[in-house]
Recover the amino acids of this structure.
């Protein structure tokens, strides 16, 4: 082997990074992909979606629930009060389970059971393969997605008419009774966000802006942090004993908190664009904010007045309404009403955070623009500093949608969607667009990503599946030549090569003592993706290096060295 190749291998060895966040691989069994709610699948392919979706399925109601996937089945709830099981490959329905109100939370897969909350006030345990009801739990209004603790315990936030977090015993296979919580922790205001689990801790945010950490063995709160936010639909994530969260509402910051003691490790720079600097004229108050004010409880109205005053907004009009409102303040929005997702104008809506080994990602719907502006930004996971030169932003015309889909991460790509069905993949390193498409309907639900597929759901009731098998057009050899999954844990690892021009590709894989393991030579046509399926069933665990050389017809050459970890 030439000296230049040896130097390249040495550099590659020096750059090996060990993944430290646990995630599911072939499956996406719960909201945000895992109980830690990181939205990160480090085993998933780093390929981008094919130019055309694999299938598009239509459900009878809007979809705010995110998909959950296991093996060949996908599960999702809809606003027509049903939970659906569907074929991953075709989108065909396998079974339908009827509840008594909208299903907006994301199902949880555990063993041969599916758990999902409904706005009818119950969490249902359903047989995964038949759709038969096994049991149901009294849980209150449910936007929270369930979590599963190691000791057969179901954990969920509790919404109206109660406020808190509840713990349920997983039922036996033949159980059919309605069960209450085995433990319940009240919180100051309603809890619609989803709990993140890292045994023995559960962390959840409530709509008073509180972030709470509960010991799963004692059912006691061990610490709480008060923010200026809301945590309405923004769930925390846990990675390596650190809690990452974006409260939203009137708190524009992202927090990193030590899970063991509640100490704030860092707090992001927050509102660097000045979007929360308000004019003091009372006329600047958005009518939708007045609507929410009148539909809120007296205690929340008082909190809203306090926050707006601190922002420099003249609250004379709202104070007058407060004095005249009387019984108006006792009204509530009907369970499952899409008003849950209406923008309030002045406050900041944020997604749940996604966390990979290097960065924290969050989507924000920002106030202060003639039409809504959505932005996604990346923060360094260890300092809270901005990781991209600039955040990716767009003005959208989807005025009614106030809440954001949450991003998911796989390999070096961040996937997300927002208003008018716009869906994207950005480079996790730079924030540059790698892929985009337009779907039918706005997007509130988070996407799901498995080893080879990406799923999006929209408010028009459509569910889309994309194969992750093709490089996006326009990408060059350096960008879209890589190996997946990496680390390789099964029987095969695929090495993909992409060229924009006619070329000959020579691929050689070496072990760490520079001995060739195999060689492949392949002619490639322009814009062709060549995928070599490497059988690693008889290969020893360790690090390997794929040296890929392409020679174009005009004599120019390109080279790339890939490091491949085999961990079976």
């Amino acid at each position: 082997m030439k000296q230049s190749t040896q130097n390249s291998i040495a550099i590659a060895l020096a750059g090996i990074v060990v993944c430290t966040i646990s995630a599911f691989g072939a499956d996406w069994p719960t909201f945000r992909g895992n109980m830690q709610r990181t939205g990160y699948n480090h085993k998933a392919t780093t390929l981008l979606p094919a130019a055309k979706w694999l299938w598009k399925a239509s459900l009878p109601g809007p979809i705010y629930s995110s998909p959950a996937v296991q093996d060949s089945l996908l599960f999702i709830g809809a606003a027509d009060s049903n939970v659906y099981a569907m074929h991953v490959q075709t989108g065909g329905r396998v079974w339908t389970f009827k509840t008594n109100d909208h299903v907006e939370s994301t199902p949880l897969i555990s063993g041969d059971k599916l758990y999902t909350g409904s706005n009818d006030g119950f969490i249902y345990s359903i047989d995964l393969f038949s759709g038969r009801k096994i049991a149901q739990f009294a849980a209150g209004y449910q936007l929270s997605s369930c979590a599963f603790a190691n000791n057969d315990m179901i954990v969920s936030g509790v919404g109206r008419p109660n406020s808190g977090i509840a713990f349920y015993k997983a039922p036996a296979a033949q159980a059919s009774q309605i069960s209450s919580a085995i433990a319940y922790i009240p919180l100051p205001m309603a809890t619609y966000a989803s709990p993140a689990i890292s045994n023995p801790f559960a962390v959840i945010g409530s709509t008073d802006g509180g972030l709470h950490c509960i010991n799963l063995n004692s059912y006691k709160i061990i610490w709480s942090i008060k923010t200026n936010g809301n945590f309405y639909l923004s769930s925390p994530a846990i990675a390596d004993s650190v809690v990452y969260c974006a409260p939203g509402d009137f708190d524009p910051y992202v927090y990193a908190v030590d899970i063991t003691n509640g100490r704030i490790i860092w707090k992001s720079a927050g509102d660097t664009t000045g979007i929360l600097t308000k004019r003091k004229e009372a006329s600047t108050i958005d009518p939708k904010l007045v609507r929410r004010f009148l539909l809120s409880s007296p205690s929340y109205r008082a909190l809203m007045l306090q926050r707006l005053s601190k922002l420099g907004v003249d609250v004379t009009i709202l104070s007058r309404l407060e004095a005249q409102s009387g019984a108006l303040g006792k009204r509530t929005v009907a369970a499952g009403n899409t008003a849950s997702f209406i923008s309030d104008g002045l406050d900041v809506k944020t997604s749940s955070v996604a966390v990979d080994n290097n960065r924290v990602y969050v989507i924000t719907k920002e106030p202060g623009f003639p039409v809504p502006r959505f932005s996604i930004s990346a923060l360094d996971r260890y300092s809270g500093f901005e990781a991209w030169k600039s955040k990716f932003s767009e003005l959208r015309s989807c005025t009614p949608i106030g809440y954001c889909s949450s991003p998911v991460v796989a390999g070096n790509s961040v996937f997300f969607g927002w208003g008018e069905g716009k869906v994207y993949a950005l480079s996790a390193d730079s924030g540059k667009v790698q892929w985009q498409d337009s779907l039918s309907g706005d997007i509130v639900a988070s996407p799901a990503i498995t080893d080879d597929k990406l799923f999006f759901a929209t408010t028009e009731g459509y569910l889309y599946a994309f194969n992750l098998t093709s490089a996006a057009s326009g990408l060059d050899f350096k960008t879209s030549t890589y190996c997946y999954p990496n680390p390789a844990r099964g029987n095969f690892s695929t090495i993909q090569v992409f060229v924009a021009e006619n070329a000959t590709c020579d691929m050689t894989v070496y072990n760490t003592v520079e001995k060739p393991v195999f060689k492949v030579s392949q002619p490639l046509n322009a814009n062709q993706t060549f995928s070599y399926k490497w059988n690693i069933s008889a290969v020893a665990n360790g690090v390997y290096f794929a040296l890929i050389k392409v020679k174009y017809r005009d004599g120019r050459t390109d080279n790339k060295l890939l490091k491949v970890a085999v961990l079976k």
Summary: The helical segments are 3-14, 287-295, 298-310, 316-325. Residues 1-25, 271-284, 325-340 have pLDDT under 50 and may be disordered.
